[in-house]
UniProtKB/TrEMBL annotation:
Belongs to the acyl-ACP thioesterase family. This is Acyl-ACP thioesterase. The lineage of its organism: Bacteria, Bacillati, Bacillota, Tissierellia, Tissierellales. GO terms for molecular function: acyl carrier activity; fatty acyl-[ACP] hydrolase activity. It comes from Soehngenia longivitae. Residues 2-129 form the Acyl-ACP thioesterase N-terminal hotdog domain.
Amino acid sequence: MKKYYKNYVIPYYDTGTNNYLKPEMILSYMAETSTWHIDSLGLGNDTLDKYNYAWLLNRWEVDISDYPRAKEEVIVSTWTTGFNKFYAYREFIMKSSDNMELARASTIWILVDSITKKPKRIPTEMIHIFSTNNEKMVERKVDFKHYNDYLYSEEKNIYIRKSDIDNNNHVNNVKYLEWMLDSTDDDILNNHNIKSISIEYKKEVLYIDKPSVHSLFKVDNSEITSKYKITTENIDHAYGQIIWREIDVK
């Protein structure tokens, strides 16, 4: 069972007003670690570009148990659990320097033609380079099938910045979570921590697009479930669900 590890020391600019690592940066550190992993295997962007390949993220399933603070060190590990046609399955876990679990995630990626954006079957020789195992981090897989049918109570327009665009010439996947959080009530943000995040990406957002975030919130005892849909006109770009728990005031 081979895993790839990368250490990070958290800078202040990756933390929020409470001095804890922002939720979107947890996803960013994980995605960054996967990039270092494939680079170490000789399958980085230079190699992918030769064959007009690109990896697109299809889904996040994330559980967060605790948040590290600025200047603390965290270790992110990642590994692949398998492949199916053009899908690849990748796991992550983030731990503190004293080996306490902070967050874990399961993800699905799609190999596409970087020009046509159509899925490409993952070459057998590429699969053989990865060392896979069956240690899955998050068994949950939220069903987003009915997310287009909900009556969303809030809508927020998004203005895309040039800095939001990544090397695949579309909005970076972490920005979608930022948009969801920006459309969430301050009362939830100030009095709750994120327990879990689920995101499914449907269609990339480009610089010329003018997306909106639609949201609704359901309260159940001490937990809040927020649901999100990111759209431009009649196109659904992503669905999201966040489960929040009350901050334990000591």
